UniProtKB/TrEMBL annotation:
PANTHER family: METALLOPROTEASE, PROCESSING PROTEASE. This is Predicted Zn-dependent peptidase. It comes from the Bacteria. GO terms for molecular function: metal ion binding. Residues 198-373 form the Peptidase M16 C-terminal domain. Residues 46-180 form the Peptidase M16 N-terminal domain. It comes from Kryptobacter tengchongensis.
């Protein structure tokens, strides 16, 4: 019996060709969940996504203003968000933390470029506790000076530590160069000068300007129905008063007009952090599905061209990637990698070669199919939990996308052809007009970078030194 079993196993192993990846299984027929919407008289919108598989409720309170509105104090939205949970008119930071911990829940507040949100996760039976704490931190924050001082100290220490990392320095300089004169050029978490200057009055002003019901929405996801959610919102937020619309237009950013090179000097560094790119797209761009597919092929997953080239073919790096960071306004397209000093120029040349190749040559059908299968096949994994679904509904709401966006997105990806990829690449990639930012040992890398364009050198504090 044992011999027969071993023989069967051996035969099955012989039939497996381990030099080839397994074929993907059939596509999962998962649809993006439908959801309920209602807008209260004060302008606050309520969204309910039902999922009764587990007795938990995830609540995301979203203000449609983020780091784009930091003005001359980078990090203001981020600091405001962090301080929301650090004290109210009736609770200290410790009491808030202890109350949510006591019921086994979580509470956090964050800011992105286009939104600030407060998230609560609780068991269904503690929904009242969760809503009471959520209302308190959203409507009654006091932004205590002692908490501001503590967070200021932590942020300054974090920034100092980050400035020792080449990747951080390259990313900061890339944004400053690409988005000069636009809020996207700022550090969303703040810099040493802005964090030092920031006062409680600045935070209160940001809060009073942007935290109004007609600039906000609240998402319930999980074991809850609209009939349960609506009375809760009425009770906790119904009396909240409207305010003036805080949104305004920001300047249009000009794209890179000619290739140029910026070095952030990191004396003694043995690696170079490379960022190459230019202006990308906004989140409502009609070609979003095509651009997403293009980027997946180029640098959006492990089998992408840039990663295979730099990692597998040449052994220059452990990983390389590209992304189109689509925001309310056009965000960056950027290729990112860290390489050894001696292959810095070779790596840049290979990246530019891949950008040009995807423009000049049609993508083979098998390569395109693999990328599209990856995009479509990974979608069900991205909407498994109430928090994941709420995050995608938040994206729909912030950027004014149609409710069926995610279902249509997958169908659009399936229809993308090699011709579409090539045309999209020609439209949105500009390898002859890129910003190249490298953080590393200037003495070693500057001479080999001059072949790509004029080189300017900065130190870690942003001072031009060459």
């Amino acid at each position: 019996m044992m011999i027969l079993l071993l023989s069967t196993i051996a035969n099955s192993q012989e039939k497996v060709d381990r030099t080839k990846p397994p074929k993907p299984g059939p596509e999962s027929k998962v649809k993006f969940p439908s959801y309920f919407e209602k807008t209260f008289p004060n302008g606050l919108k309520v969204i309910v996504i039902e999922n009764h598989e587990q007795p938990i409720v995830y609540i995301s309170f979203v203000v449609k203003s983020g780091s784009t509105y930091d003005e001359n104090l980078p990090g203001l939205a981020s600091m405001t968000a962090e301080l929301l949970t650090k004290g109210t008119k009736t609770r200290t930071a410790t009491q808030i933390a202890e109350e949510i911990d006591f019921v086994g829940g979580t509470l956090n507040a964050t800011a992105s470029w286009d939104a600030t949100n407060v998230n609560v996760l609780v068991l269904k039976k503690y929904l009242g506790v969760g809503m009471d704490i959520l209302q308190d931190v959203v409507l009654n924050p006091t932004f205590p000076d002692e908490e501001l001082g503590r967070i200021r100290t932590q942020r300054l220490a974090s920034i100092k530590q980050a400035k020792a990392e080449a990747g951080y320095l390259a990313g900061v300089r890339f944004s400053k160069e690409l988005f000069s004169g636009h809020p996207y050029g700022n550090e969303s978490g703040g810099n040493e000068e802005s964090i030092q200057k920031m006062k409680r009055d600045d935070i209160v002003k940001f809060y009073q300007t942007h935290f109004i019901p007609n600039n906000s929405f609240i998402i319930f996801a999980g074991d809850i129905t609209p009939n349960e959610a609506i009375p809760l919102v009425e009770r906790y937020f119904g009396a909240w008063k409207k305010g003036p619309n805080p949104h305004r237009k920001f300047p249009v950013v000009s794209n890179v007009s000619q290739t140029r090179v910026v070095v952030v000097d990191k004396p003694g560094a043995v690696q170079s952090a490379i960022r190459i790119g230019h202006l990308g797209i906004d989140r409502k761009n009609k070609d979003y599905a095509k651009v997403f597919t293009l980027n997946t092929l180029l640098g959006g997953y492990f089998n992408s061209r840039i990663n295979m080239n730099l990692r597998e073919t040449h052994g220059y790096t452990y990983g390389a990637s590209s992304s189109f960071d689509a925001r309310l306004y056009p965000g960056p397209f950027v290729v990112s990698t860290d390489v050894r000093n001696e292959v810095t120029d070779s790596s840049i040349a290979e990246i530019l070669k891949e950008l040009k190749r995807i423009i000049d040559e049609p993508v083979p059908e098998d390569e395109l199919k693999m990328a599209k299968d990856y995009i479509v096949g990974s979608f069900p994994l991205q909407i498994e939990t109430p928090a994941q679904v709420a995050s995608r509904v938040m994206t729909i709401e912030i950027y004014g996308l149609p409710k069926d966006f995610y279902d249509k997105f997958r169908e659009e990806v399936k229809k993308v052809t090699a011709k579409d990829v090539q045309e999209t690449a020609k439209k949105y990639l500009h390898p002859d007009k890129v910003l190249i930012v490298v953080s590393g040992n200037s003495n070693q890398i500057k001479p080999v970078l001059e072949k790509f364009g004029p080189v300017v050198v900065y130190d870690a504090d942003g001072r031009k030194i060459e």
